Amino acid sequence: MNRRTDRGFTLVEVLVSLVVLSVGLLGMAKMVMVSSHSNDSAYLRSQATALAYQALDRMRANLPLSTTNGYATALGAMPATPAGWPNAGCMVGCANAALAAWDVYAWKQALLALPSGTGSITTSGTFPMTATVTVRWDDSVAQSVFQGAGAQMAVTLETVLQ
Fold first, then answer.
1. 3-state class (DSSP) for residue 122
2. pTM for this one?
3. Which residues are CB-contacts of 96 (< 8 A; sequence separation ≥ 6)?
């Protein structure tokens, strides 16, 4: 009896394994894309939070003007460029009002690093004096992966000044 033993794979087995492998690779590619968009969104959120804390730190450093609406600014409003910007600086020996103008202008300029970045600062006017800082930016590129999420993102911090 001459019996031949078959060895190797058939073409159907090879094709099935290629389909399974390609589905797995497509799933991994989608996972990498979602992860990348999530990282971009988290980076923008951390930058916005740092900028909001920066505004609060500037206000605490100039408390006399912070409590009298010297730092108040609206969303989308860009204050006038202070005299001598950016060379002269206003770090030592300038009046509180000039320092507040420099601080608000520098903060608004820093917000431009975010996509469509803007921010607002408000104070309560009553005791205890509270400050609210809002930073907004366009996160549509990162949010395009997540269904139902809005493109406009915001971080709002509120703290007691005194």
1. strand
2. 0.78
3. 62, 64, 65, 70
